[in-house]
Amino acid sequence: MRYFRVHTADIAYITQQPRGIFTAIGKRIYAEMTFYREMAKKYGIQLYMSE
Predict the structure, then answer these.
(1) Which of 21, 22, 25, 36 could, after both became Cys, cross-link 6 (CB 3.0–4.6 A)?
(2) Is the pTM higher than 0.85?
């Protein structure tokens, strides 16, 4: 069975291989959420998070 691997130009730290598209998207979302949490702490705004 054939498949295509879609990857980005980012290089993974441990494997030294290009990151897959799903990992790249996941890391981007995590980075943005971290940014918003830091801004919320800085300016005293409470975020509503689902747990």
Answers:
(1) 21
(2) no
Q: What is the pLDDT of residues 1-51, one digit of tens each?
A: 898 888 888 888 888 988 888 888 888 898 888 888 888 887 776 666 555
Cβ neighbours of residue 46 under 8 Å, at least 6 residues apart?
40
Cβ–Cβ < 8 Å for 33, 20: no
| DSSP structural state of residue 39 | H
Structure-block tokens of residue 41: 């702490």
Rounded distance between C-alpha atoms, residue 1 and residue 26, angstroms: 27
In contact, 30 and 23? CB cutoff 8 Å: no
Q: Considering only CA atoms, which of 14, 7, 10 is closest in space to residue 31?
A: 10
